[in-house]
Amino acid sequence: MLTRNCLSLLLWILFDGGLLTPLQSQPQQTLATEPRENVIHSPGRQSHFQRVKRGWVWNQFFVLEEYMGSEPQYVGKLHSDLDKGEGTVKYTLSGDGAGTVFTIDETTGDIHAIRSLDREEKPFYTLRAQAVDIETRKPLEPESEFIIKVQDINDNEPKFLDGPYVASVPEMSPVGAYVLQVKATDADDPTYGNSARVVYSILQGQPYFSIDPKTGVIRTALPNMDREVKEQYQVLIQAKDMGGQLGGLAGTTLVNITLTDVNDNPPRFPKSIFHLKVPESSPIGSAIGRIRAVDPDFGQNAEIEYNIVPGDGGNLFDIVTDEDTQEGIIKLKKPLDFETKKAYTFKVEASNLHLDHRFHSAGPFKDTATVKISVLDVDEPPVFSKPLYTMEVYEDTPVGTIIGAVTAQDLDVGSSAVRYFIDWKSDGDSYFTIDGTEGTIATNELLDRESTAQYNFSIIASKVSNPLLSSKVNILINVLDVNEFPPEISVPYETAVCENAKPGQIIQIVSAADRDLSPAGQQFSFRLSPEAAIKPNFTVHDFRNNTAGIETRRNGYSRRNQELYFLPVVIEDSSYPVQSSTNTMTIRVCRCDSDGTILSCNVEAIFLPVGLSTGALIAILLCIVILLAIVVLYVALRKQKKKDTLMTSKEDIRDNVIHYDDEGGGEEDTQAFDIGALRNPKVIEENKIRRDIKPDSLSLTRQRPPVEDNTDIRDFIHQRLQENDMDPAAPPYDSLATYAYEGNGSVAESLSSIDSLTTEADQDYDYLADWGPRFKVLADMFGEEESHSPDNVT
């Protein structure tokens, strides 16, 4: 500041003392600097308004920031050449902070800062000054602009904007391994002095880490730092301005550094021998124990793989790793037996899965331990000698025949007797029985292979000392076949031979089937029966592969002479005892073309030699079929008409069927039926149409002989009976025609048996047989029921 004030004073002396001559003769404005103060001179105004050339212009002031004095801080002074010190000039100030931050003395032009300034808040202010005539209020010269700069002081300490920091570095890293770079920011002016020059240092964290004073890079300072010894470090970093000199401001931050794990430690068993006790009844695949190797590493570096070293009993066990606890789980691969072996010893090896090649020199990353397993005795169920028993028996074997036996033993130290039972789960188990002590299996029923060829059931063996301990085994019994069925032709064949067949032609291939066994298990033979072997029209050629061919023996066959041939074929099996059967094959003679293709085997082909063509024969057959259809239709219509003889009218039913539910009123009761036909036989002659069937318009009227008035009613009924017997239009079933009448005093007398003194047993129905075929059924009924109690007659 002193240097700058001296410079201003020197310039003022030079201009004001006339040591420097102006370039032109015109008056000029000069800028002078008074001792210990800033002064700005403004040019005067000439009366003749000539242009005045400016001299040196000093337009920049400085003010200290954070001024804490009791008086306003003096900044500088404005002065115009036109100001003669007479008080006629007034100085004004405008721009940034005018009136609020800076003030000016209107008479002297002194500028002061009225409050403390912060360079970090605003580094400079731009203002405008002007000299004004007090009387005229007019500017004496143009407005001049100048700058007031806030001069920086070291009032801001360095700050770590990103702190606190978190960093990590692998354990066992060498010296100088990069960890992290920190950065502090100073708000002071970096272009002025050393206020913003920062230097870094470690206040806490040595001797483990170091920091570069200029860049702030943190590095490891010790080799082989072990995470398993110490994992977390807190490092205190300081940043100091003024280049770290005394009096500089400082800021601090905390850096949390974690050592990350590497696989630098092998797994180790805490003890060399592990003892386990396992019951002999442990199921296969069950976990029988756990062992653990300790690895101080972390994460995947601590993952352990366990293996059983081949040795004594190692093949009976297996070991897997529990991914959550990193324990070795020992499992059972094969069953244990206390009576066979009571203890097992083997070694287990533990090793890391993920190795780090940098630490191979430290030794093998694995460890071994011995496992001793003691087998505990358990009371076990009996054990069968076989896992499955297979037996065979012939069908129709007598009941009680022993077909096999099962054996189970108690292998425990204190052996117990065993009892056998059949596991009854199905009805098929009742075909066999088992001896509870010996275990022998016998038939309980006759077996039929064709019904059931195989039996499958279970047998249970339990200890007598503890029946709850039992075991089960499956029994498979195959029923062997006995040759009891003869072989037969497998399918019915439709065999045809051509009329123009030659001798030696095979017209049919036949095969056989046997219900005893499949054809693959037997050999069948084919031959003609002895009675057909004499002058045969056909013969049988056995191919010896369970098939045979029907072979012709004649040169041509005639359908006119014989249309069908019956060939008896004898089929014989190869089992013992030998079974055979005779099967008759039907061979039809057919018309064929020259290639042997069958054209027709129908009966109509026989008439071809007559000279009729095939079309004519078809037309004839069609006509025959149409005529047959007409006849069938006519007969059906006739039957339908005869079925309609059942009366639908209530009056017809009343006249033909009379119910004797109560006693009638005699001849006077005319509501039940029409008795006039009985009283006056002439009425019958007038009624030419029967009432019990529908009238037939095609039938001719029957001629009846006249009946006399005094003809006895019996003769009348007999006459009607003959008419019904001789009537071709009568229905083809028994019809009940009622000719009875009711009441006392009737001329014709009563035909009812209600008032009869005799019982049905006293009556003789033999006369019904003389009434003709229409009454045959009625005669048979009464003839058969003479010995039974009588019923009411309607």
Automatic annotation (TrEMBL):
GO biological process, one term: cell morphogenesis
Keywords (A to Z) from UniProt: Calcium, Cell adhesion, Cell membrane, Cleavage on pair of basic residues, Glycoprotein, Membrane, Metal-binding, Phosphoprotein, Repeat, Signal, Transmembrane, Transmembrane helix
GO-annotated cellular components: adherens junction; catenin complex
Coiled coil (residue ranges): none
Record CDD domains: Cadherin_repeat
N-terminal signal peptide: 1-25
Domain Cadherin: 80-160, 161-269, 270-384, 385-489, 489-607
InterPro entries: Cadherin (IPR039808), Cadherin-like_dom (IPR002126), Cadherin-like_sf (IPR015919), Cadherin_CS (IPR020894), Cadherin_Y-type_LIR (IPR000233), Catenin-bd_sf (IPR027397)
SMART domains: CA
Pfam families, sorted: CADH_Y-type_LIR, Cadherin
Subcellular location: Cell membrane
Molecular functions (GO terms): beta-catenin binding; cadherin binding; calcium ion binding
SUPFAM superfamilies: Cadherin-like (SSF49313)
Membrane-crossing segments per the record: 606-637
Topological relation to the membrane, as annotated: Single-pass type I membrane protein
UniProt cross-references to PANTHER family, sorted A to Z: CADHERIN-12, CADHERIN-23
Function of the molecule: Cadherins are calcium-dependent cell adhesion proteins. They preferentially interact with themselves in a homophilic manner in connecting cells; cadherins may thus contribute to the sorting of heterogeneous cell types.
Name this protein carries in UniProt: Cadherin-12
